[in-house]
Amino acid sequence: MKTTETPAPVPAESGVPVAKTDAPARPPRRADKEGTTLNVFSHGVLVIWAILVVMPLLWAVMTSFKDDSAIFGSPWSLPDRLHFDNWSRAWTEANMSDYFLNTVLVVGGSLIGTLVLGSMAAYVLARFDFPGNRFIYFLFIGGMSFPIMLALVPLFYVVNNMGLLNTIHGLILVYIAYSLPFTVFFLTAFFRTLPTSVAEAAFVDGASHSRTFFQIMLPMAKPGLISVGIFNFLGQWNQYMLPTVLNTDPDKRVLTQGLVQLAVSQGYKGDWSGLFAGLVMAMLPVLAAYIVFQRQVVQGLTAGALK
Amino acid sequence: MQHGKYRFIVGFLALPLGLYALFVVWPFIQSIYYSFTDWTGLSPEFKMVGLDNYRRMLDDEIFWKSLQHSLMFAVVLPLVTISLALFFAFMINVGGRRRKGGPVISGVRGSSFYKIVYFFPQVLSIAIVALLFAFAYNPDSGAINSLLRGIGLDSVQPLWLGDPGLALWCVMAVLVWSTVGFFVVLFSAGMASIPADLYEAALLDGAGRAATFFRITLPLLWDTVQSGWVYMGILALGAESFAVVQIMTTGPGGPDYSTTVMVLYVYQKAFRDGQAAYATTIGVALLVVTLAFAALVMRLGRRERLEY
């Protein structure tokens, strides 16, 4: 989406393709004064909220460089020196490296699985007429509004009986299953917007259905796959409830779980500075990725709600 | 196009649908069935007990507390979050100073900066956000109380999460903090697609900012607001409230059950107390509340769709 950073005489926010060079009439004079006070007021409010958002994050970064006594003694003071040892302690002794690795494995596997399976199902549902099409579609969509916790009680035993409890691949399969509703919903709508003529031409030329899908339709659906991929990546990377229930083995913990456990166990170990270093360590890669891919992330996350 | 069509359909649907049915649909059906049994979750044996669990639930004081808190989450959180977000989005997109020769409606300077910053919490895990704020709320050494001391408010040192009357509000504030940015961006996108002519016409008629907002922006944005409301409500009843309450409050569930929510109560009954059947009963109640909430918002918010 467009933003008006430049005061160009183009109504960039309007989304109207034709640039209007002149406003049809000047607004009434008195509006100018109102505009000025409003401008000050709106800027003030916006700046305050920006500070409220950024301050806790900066505070966390700052705290991660302090030693324990400074954290408790004077929460707002700057660190006396940069205690990088907090970070190395968190990485090795507090197992942050293991948590990162587990998270990368789980999210990597689930993301690929979600996109492949989700686009296959969505393509069939969007492009083929067959008995039960609507039913299956609504079965998938229904999963978006049901409270997952209700299913998690029996799911724990289903997963346990299959021998998948506390395994990385078990967690991957569950992540995929719970990511499918939104993915199918989003990609079905996306596949419907793609032109049919290209696929038909490929089919006339003798390509099979699956070849048409993998070689023609998937590349065409790339923008949609990127949006829904970012959505799922963040959702799965930040997932807390599913691993808390289904992944209780300390060695298999993912980042969010590991950090919470770390916080709980600090009551005994008392390494708060290491914990803060761990928190910041988990925050920074996602924030950095967001700043780099800002436009795509915002599109991916808001795409679903706008449909 | 017909050749091999059904084989293809079955081949492509089998895996996703099978996985979905096994891990999502089947557990949902099972859990409704289990709510009529006395299954503990610890042993495979159980028998049907009819409506016993539901009767027990109606007499369970903690259940009523959790229901009350969940309802508050579903009503207060979207209300506060969406109002704030609408206000910020309007300021960002329409609150700018009118410049000579410029467009009639313009955003404030640096609008894209605000949108980037406001969105930060949205990309962080709610678990990490909850941990961070649990420290900030710490009454002795937390950032908030020491800030209050720093500006001379030594007498104002609330216990925050330790105060039964305050804990729930503290938890809700964290959810507001983390979700406002998402809605600001969502509503900004919606506002950007409102044609400028409408604003121009309103200004010609002498409408002020407030009138412009309530007569033009809000009605044209209504669909987005409504779906945002449902989305936020479902989150507030489910995963998000579980994470914040479980991580931030003591117990978990707060002093004197002051922050317990339905989703946390389900979890505790099933995985802490070994009462899986009773847990699914509360889960069914949560399902009813969620669906009723969504239906209510869709119904109350129904208006004639405005075309523009």
UniProtKB/TrEMBL annotation, chain A:
Keyword Transport on entry: yes
Gene Ontology BP terms: transmembrane transport
Family annotation (PROSITE patterns): ABC_TM1
A GO cellular component entry from the record: plasma membrane
Record keywords: Cell membrane, Membrane, Transmembrane, Transmembrane helix, Transport
Region (Disordered): 1-33
Segments traversing the membrane: 38-59, 99-125, 137-159, 171-191, 212-234, 272-293
Main location: membrane
InterPro entries with a match to the protein in the record: MetI-like (IPR000515), MetI-like_sf (IPR035906)
Protein localization: Cell membrane
Membrane topology (UniProt): Multi-pass membrane protein
Domain named ABC transmembrane type-1: residues: 100-293
Stored Pfam families: BPD_transp_1 (PF00528)
Family: Belongs to the binding-protein-dependent transport system permease family.
Name of the protein: Sugar ABC transporter permease
From TrEMBL, chain B:
Membrane topology field: Multi-pass membrane protein
GO cellular component entries: plasma membrane
Subcellular location(s) of the protein: Cell membrane
Annotated transmembrane regions: 7-29, 71-95, 116-137, 166-187, 229-248, 276-298
Keyword terms, alphabetized: Cell membrane, Membrane, Transmembrane, Transmembrane helix, Transport
Domain ABC transmembrane type-1: 67-297
Gene3D superfamilies: MetI-like
tRNA processing recorded as keyword: no
Alphabetized InterPro entries for the sequence: ABC_transporter_permease, MetI-like, MetI-like_sf
Gene Ontology BP annotations: transmembrane transport
PROSITE patterns: ABC_TM1
Pfam families: BPD_transp_1
Family that this chain belongs to: Belongs to the binding-protein-dependent transport system permease family.
Protein name in the entry: ABC transporter permease
Lineage of the organism: Bacteria, Bacillati, Actinomycetota, Actinomycetes, Kitasatosporales
